[in-house]
Write a structure and sequence with these properties.
This is Response regulator. The chain is α/β, with parallel strands linked by helices. Helix content is 48%, strand content 18%.
Length: 126
């Protein structure tokens, strides 16, 4: 896997830490995190990330608003939505806003690995 720098945007510190540990196990070298959408947008504009993990329910912005800010500026960076709100409507809204994947909370390391592998494979075909 070529991906080694990740950004996690989630207001829940426990989820950020679980995802951080999962990504470390999967070989990520740098993992940054943000507790809200505005901080996440700011971090994403300061340096390149190979992948961004994004919660939908943030204290300041909805995840789809964050996606709408990020995707025009970072069209080649996969953004994977990680949410407990796994409705069909949220899936459709996320994909329409530019999400590259959608993972339900609670997540497993195997699910995160699978979605990363799927995105690596899709990117290598483009």
């Amino acid at each position: 896997m070529n991906t080694n720098i990740a950004l996690i945007i989630d207001d829940n510190a426990t989820i950020r830490e679980l995802l951080r540990q999962t990504l470390k196990l999967l070989g990520f070298q740098q993992i940054h995190d943000a507790p809200n959408g505005l901080t996440g947008i700011e971090l994403a504009q300061q340096q390149p990330f190979d992948v961004i993990f994004l919660d939908l329910e943030l204290p300041d912005l909805h995840g789809t608003s964050v996606l709408s800010h990020l995707k025009p500026r970072l069209p080649d960076t996969p953004v994977i939505v990680v949410t407990a709100h796994t409705t069909v409507e949220n899936l459709k809204l996320s994909l329409a806003a530019g999400a590259s994947g959608f993972v339900a909370k609670p997540f497993s390391a195997q699910k995160i690995k699978a979605i990363l592998h799927k995105n690596d494979h899709q990117q290598s075909l483009v």
